Amino acid sequence: METQIKKNAPTMKQQMYDILIDVSWAQISMHYFGKSRSWLNHKMNGIDGNGGKGDFTGEEKDTLRDALHDLARRINVCADNVQ
User: What is the pLDDT of residues 15-64, one digit of tens each?
Assistant: First the structure.
């Protein structure tokens, strides 16, 4: 049953649809993960570098969540400084 639920779960890319084109994923990949843009692209699509399944680990999800929170905080600081 748990496998069934996970199988139908949206990919990270689908979850990020609203901000997908507005964010520099290459910079997030390099800055927060120390990985290439293609690595993050594969992860976002739920595949590994060999074309198999390659979802985010729990730790990678935490890193992505922290990265997005950090980016949101930085955007808010910039917005607050607009004169």
Answer: 888 888 889 999 999 999 999 999 999 999 998 878 788 889 999 999 99
Categorize the per-residue pLDDT at 78 as very low, low, confident or very high, splitting at 50, 70 and 90.
very high
Parent domain of 21: 2-80
Q: Are 56 and 39 in contact (CB under 8 A)?
A: no
Q: How many domains does the chain have?
A: 1
